[in-house]
Amino acid sequence: MRVILVGFGNLGRGLSRVLVQKASFLHRSHGLITRVVAVVDEFGSVVDEKGLNLNELLKVAEKKGTVVAYKGGKRGKLALKVIDDVEADVVYDLTPTNIKTGEPGLTHIKRAMREGKHVITSNKGPLVVAFRELDSLAKRCGVEFRYSASVGGAIPVVGLAKKLLAGNEIHEIRGVLNGTTNYILTRMSKEGAPFEVVLREAKELGIAEKDPTLDIEGIDTACKITILANSLLGMNARLKEVKRAGIARVRPEAIRLAQEAGYTIKLIGIAKRGSLEVGPKLVPLGHPLAVGGTLNAVTFKLDLAREISITGFGAGPKETSSSLLGDLIDIHRTLGG
Amino acid sequence: MLIRLEMELEDVPGQLFKALEPISRYGGNIQSIMHQRERKTPLGRLPVMLIFEIGERARLNRILAALRAMGVRITRIGEREGAVRTTVLLIGHIIHTDVRDTIDRLNALKGVMVSDLSLAMGAPGQESAARMTIVVDDEKHTNLAISRMRRIADRKELLMITSLEAE
Q: How far is A260 from B54, CA to CA, in rounded Å?
């Protein structure tokens, strides 16, 4: 399969490394040969229809900070031109998330679909802003659209529900969907350290971003709940419909009170028809959602299987590439490969 | 089973302590005591309301007999078979927004009672945290109690954290 990567940050590079490492595995186990024919970043692009040397590209991009430095690299805002002009089967949109406009990912995805290219994305922005539109555009254009990496990182939340649990009606989805806040809550509960201290530590460790507002205020979790509601519950939900509280007011004393009664506090997103919510909740110790550190966890409430819970790493380039690669193999199989 | 017992005690020191003794002697697990000093009866006795858990009816009968033998007047006794306990955490200016009023408003609901309150005071000017146990007659009353508590929390700008099981 010929692949275009739009976005070459942590995720784009992580995926490229995995494509190199797993080339023979993919061929042997799945009959899949991938050729990355173009890579675009914020500074420019590089194209080779015979397939780029990803090892070389990774080295150059690490050293110079852009793919433009690779031989034949061009400078400029070239994503749409590459999507239009370069022959490819799949476009990965791995650009940064903008939850207000969905851009630039939204335009990339639409353009790729109209060009008849399958799309895989990790970008929550376009999914939050225009899920229904993208879902029906993909159908109209006859292309596959996958977004496993947008929710739960490495955890196959969407795939599990859509494929393996396909015979069930989903009543409710609950989850710990943000590693940063889970890390902060876990540290506060284990060490009793104040919120500000733990937040600073999380920033130093690179777990929290410099501006952690989206995480702390529960907005990131609300985005994921919106995506799950739309993709798995068939809703047409908007981000602003999610009732939301963050964790900034949760102090170690509150967690101590919870622990004395057999609970811990987790930031939980809940999606059910008619009610979308994000907020701190008392979770019984030992409950499947009482996961520690940066882990994510999701519980489905179902009519047949009753409850299914799944836990794993919600972030990280290598972990997330599990979902990004899984989507590619899934499209390959769907197309009869 | 969960027993709710209302009784009247003489207003002399040590009465409450004495009244609790047979309950623990026969294996009762006391969950809540409400000692209402300001609601003295016309005869000058003090009403006390207890909630406790006990294994068998025979033990309950022994407790009642022991209480009567020591002159305690039992005014009401009820079994709360379907009783449900739910835990709620509150964060905010809990004292300044009149915690007594918060509890009274919940207790005013029929079939709902706040049975426990633990408080962790914040530093001066900072928010406090409280854990509240609410005992209700059945699941339906849980929703009633939670939605009333939610309204109170909204008005008093308290962050209310409910249990995942209560959703």
A: 23
